[in-house]
Design brief:
Elements (H helix, E strand, L loop, with lengths): L10 E2 L20 E11 L4 E5 L1 H18 L4 E3 L7 E4 L11 E6 L2 E6 L1 H14 L1 E3 L2 E11 L5 E7 L7 H13 L4 E5 L1 E2 L2 E2 L8 H4 L3 E2 L20 E2 L4 H12 L4 E8 L4 H6 L27 H17 L4 E5 L6 H4 L2 H9 L5 H18 L3 E5 L12 E4 L4 H8 L4 E3 L2 H4 L22 H5 L10 H4 L2 E8 L7 H8 L2 H10 L7 H18 L10 E6 L6 E6 L6 E5 L10 E2 L4 E2 L8 E8 L9 E5 L1
Parallel strand pairs: 3-4, 3-5, 5-7, 10-11, 10-21, 11-16, 16-17, 17-18, 18-19, 19-20, 20-21
Antiparallel strand pairs: 1-26, 2-9, 6-7, 6-9, 8-9, 12-13, 14-15, 22-23, 23-26, 24-25, 24-27, 27-28
Helix pairs in contact: 1-2, 3-5, 7-10
Length: 608
C-alpha cells in the first residue's frame, strides 16, 4: 500500500507525456544536418539490402549482424534492383568528407552513401531511427547529411590495473561503434600487470600478468594497506588481440595499443629485473599510485622494447603506437651511475633530456617501421620528439604548447575526460571511485579546441579522448556504470560542432532514447539525475516542480517530507505543487525506475 503523506497536502496536476517519448529522430551524436520528411519506410523480412561496391557489401554484412542481434532476422543482400530496398553505396563518395555520409529515407526506400566508414556510420544512424511497433519496423522519412567535427574520437580502457575478458571488450566496441567513436586506446601494461602475450618473453605472461593481492577500499582508507589475499590478473593471447583488432576494424574502430615506458614498468621488472636500475627485488604491486621504478636506458632495454614492439606491430596494423611516457619518477636515474654516464655520453643536460632521448630512440624505431608515436604530455619534458602526437591529460596546457609548436594533439584533460571520476558528490550513493567529480554536463560541454589557439593552430587538435582508468573498477557491471552515459556525451564532443551542441536538447531528446536502447542491449549504465524545473506557483509560498527523467518511458517516485523515496511512495504524474511552507525548507527526494525495472540511486534536491 502506498504511503500517503497527508501532512504536506500535495496538489498534483494532470498527467503529461514526457517530451522525449515523441522524438522520432533522436540520433546520437547529433547529425550536422537533419531534415524531417513526410511518411516512413517499413522494413520487413522481405526487404533487401542492395550493396553497390565491394566495401558496401562488407557494411551490408555488418547491417545484417546488427539486425540479427536486435531483431532476430537478417535481410537478403544483392547488388541489383534498388526499389523498396536499403541501398548502401560506396561508389559515389568523392564529394563527401572522410567518414561523412548521406542518409535518405522515403516511403520507397532507404539510401546511404559515402566512403566505407561513412556508410557504416550511416547504418548506425539508421539503426537509431528504427521504430518498433509489434512485429513492424518503420523508419521516419528523413534526409541527413553528416560528417565528424574531429578526426580522432577515442576511448581508453586500462586493463593493466584490472583485466577484462574479450567478450566485455567486444561489448564496449559495439557501443563505441553506435556512437561513432573510432579509436580504442588499449592500455595494456602498467605497474600492476602486463596483459599481452609476447612470444619472445614468456615471463611477461607467467609472472608480469599476475599479482598476489590487491588493496581493499580506497587508497587512503587504511594505513597500512589491507589486502584481499586473492591472486588476480590475466592476459590476452596474440590470437585474442588479433580477434579484437578485427572486430574493431569491422566497426570502423582503430585499436591503439599502449606499452608503457620508461615508467609504469614494475610488472616487467619483476620478471626481468636486469632492465631496471638495480633497485630490486621487484614484485607486481597490488596497490596504486606512481611507483619509483623505471627502465634503465641501456642497450639491453632498447633491445627488449624493440623486440616487444615488433611483436606488437605484427598484431596491431594501425598507424599509432602509444608508449605512455607519463609519470616517470627520475630519482632512479639521478642515483644511477650508468644513467648519468648515458647523460654525459649523449651530451644531455639532465634527466628530463634523458627521457626525451629515450622516447626519441623508440620513436625512430617506430617511424622506421611505418608507425607514429603517441605519448602522454610528459613527453614534452626535455624537448618534444619530431613527429610525436601529444595526448594532453594534465589539463590543456601541454596540448596547447604542442599545437603551438605544430605537433598533433589529442585533448584528454582529467577535469573533463577522466570517466573513472565520481559521477556525484555524494559518496554514500556512488560506488568507490579514484576521486574527482565529473558529472555528465561537464563532459558534454567540453570544447577540445582551446580559444587561445589560432585557427591554424587548432587544426593540430586531431581529436578528443575519454579515459577509463580501472584502479577501482574490477567488474564488467561497474565498468559500464562508469562509462555510460558519459561516453555518450563524449560522442557529441568529438562529432558535433560546438556551435551545434546544446546540453538541454541532448539530455531531453537524444540521451533518453539512447539509454533506453542501451538497456535493451543488456548494457549497464548509471541512471542519471532527472531534469528538475522549480518555479514559483501563483500562490505565494508554494513551488511548482516538474521532473523529466533522462531514460525514456521511466517512472519517478518521490517524497518532499524528508522520507526516503522508493517504489511505494508518490508516483510522479506530470508536475508537483508544494504546500504552504511558512518558510520551512523542503527536500525533494526521488528515484527513477526504468522500463526494465532498473532502479536509480536516490537523488535529493533542496527546494528553496
Amino acid at each position: 500500500m502506498k504511503r500517503i503523506y497527508l501532512v504536506i497536502c500535495l496538489v498534483l496536476s494532470g498527467s503529461i507525456a514526457f517530451a522525449q517519448q515523441t522524438n522520432d529522430a533522436a540520433i546520437v551524436p547529433k547529425p550536422a544536418l537533419l531534415e524531417k520528411g513526410i511518411g516512413s519506410f517499413t522494413i520487413s523480412k522481405h526487404t533487401n539490402i542492395v550493396a553497390k561496391g565491394a566495401e558496401a557489401m562488407k557494411v551490408a554484412g555488418m547491417l545484417n549482424y546488427f539486425f540479427q542481434k536486435k531483431y532476430g532476422f537478417t535481410l537478403g543482400i544483392n547488388n541489383g534492383v534498388a526499389t523498396g530496398a536499403i541501398t548502401l553505396n560506396t561508389l559515389s563518395a568523392e564529394k563527401l568528407p572522410h567518414e561523412g555520409y548521406e542518409l535518405n529515407v522515403t516511403n520507397n526506400g532507404i539510401k546511404i552513401s559515402g566512403e566505407p566508414g561513412g556508410v557504416f556510420y550511416g547504418v548506425q544512424s539508421l539503426l537509431q531511427l528504427i521504430h518498433v511497433s509489434g512485429n513492424q519496423l518503420s523508419v521516419p522519412a528523413v534526409n541527413i547529411k553528416d560528417q565528424p567535427n574531429l578526426a580522432y574520437r577515442g576511448l581508453m580502457l586500462d586493463v593493466g590495473r584490472h583485466f577484462f575478458e574479450v567478450g566485455e571488450i567486444k561489448k564496449i566496441l559495439d557501443v563505441m561503434a553506435s556512437l561513432k567513436l573510432n579509436r580504442f586506446h588499449w592500455h595494456l601494461t602498467d605497474d600492476q600487470g602486463w596483459r599481452l602475450e609476447i612470444k619472445k618473453y614468456p615471463k611477461l605472461t607467467t609472472i608480469s600478468a599476475w599479482r598476489d593481492s590487491t588493496i581493499i577500499g580506497g587508497y587512503g582508507d587504511f594505513k597500512p594497506f589491507i589486502y584481499d589475499g586473492k591472486r588476480s590478473g590475466g592476459f590476452y593471447t596474440q590470437d585474442q588481440a588479433r580477434e579484437i583488432v578485427k572486430y574493431a576494424a569491422e566497426r570502423n574502430i582503430e585499436v591503439i595499443p599502449e606499452i608503457e615506458m620508461p615508467g609504469h614498468s614494475t610488472a616487467v621488472l619483476t620478471a626481468y629485473p636486469e632492465l631496471g636500475n638495480g633497485t630490486g627485488p621487484y614484485t607486481v604491486p597490488g596497490y596504486w599510485g606512481v611507483h619509483n621504478t623505471i627502465y634503465n636506458p641501456g642497450e639491453p632495454t632498447f633491445k627488449f622494447l624493440e623486440d616487444v614492439l615488433t611483436e606488437v606491430m605484427a598484431i596491431f596494423p594501425g598507424k599509432y603506437i602509444h608508449i605512455g611516457g607519463d609519470e616517470v619518477p627520475k630519482d632512479e636515474w639521478k642515483n644511477s651511475a650508468f644513467a648519468q654516464q648515458v647523460i654525459h655520453d649523449n651530451h644531455l643536460k639532465d634527466e628530463n633530456e634523458l627521457q626525451s632521448w629515450f622516447i626519441g630512440r623508440i620513436e625512430k624505431f617506430l617511424n622506421k617501421n611505418g608507425r607514429n608515436l603517441i605519448g602522454w604530455d610528459e613527453i614534452l619534458e626535455g624537448g618534444l620528439t619530431a613527429n610525436a602526437t601529444v595526448m594532453s591529460w594534465r589539463g590543456e596546457e601541454g596540448g596547447i604548447q604542442a599545437a603551438q609548436q605544430g605537433h598533433n594533439v589529442i585533448m584528454s584533460p582529467g577535469s573533463n575526460m577522466y570517466v573513472d571520476h565520481a559521477q556525484a558528490k555524494d559518496g554514500k550513493t556512488e560506488p568507490l571511485a579514484i576521486g574527482g567529480f565529473l558529472p555528465l554536463d561537464v563532459v558534454y560541454n567540453y570544447n577540445p579546441l582551446p580559444a587561445v589557439l589560432t585557427p591554424d593552430q587548432q587544426k593540430h587538435i586531431s581529436g578528443v579522448q575519454a579515459n577509463m582508468w580501472t584502479e577501482y573498477v574490477a567488474t564488467n557491471n561497474k565498468l559500464e556504470y562508469m562509462l555510460f552515459p558519459r561516453a555518450i556525451a563524449l560522442a557529441e564532443v568529438g562529432w558535433t560542432k560546438p556551435a551545434d551542441k546544446d546540453y538541454e536538447s541532448f539530455s531531453k531528446n537524444r540521451l533518453p532514447v539512447f539509454l533506453k536502447n542501451l538497456e535493451k542491449s543488456g548494457v549497464n549504465y548509471r541512471i542519471p539525475e532527472a531534469d528538475i524545473k522549480i518555479s514559483d506557483d501563483t500562490q505565494i509560498g508554494r513551488k511548482k516542480i516538474t521532473i523529466t527523467p533522462l531514460v525514456a518511458d521511466s517512472k519517478v517516485y518521490y517524497t518532499i517530507d524528508g522520507h526516503k523515496a522508493d517504489n511505494t511512495t508518490n508516483l510522479y504524474d506530470g508536475s508537483i505543487t508544494t504546500p504552504f511552507t511558512n518558510g520551512r525548507p523542503l527536500t525533494l527526494k526521488y528515484i527513477i525506475v526504468t522500463p526494465a525495472n532498473r532502479v536509480s540511486n536516490e537523488f535529493s534536491v533542496d527546494l528553496k
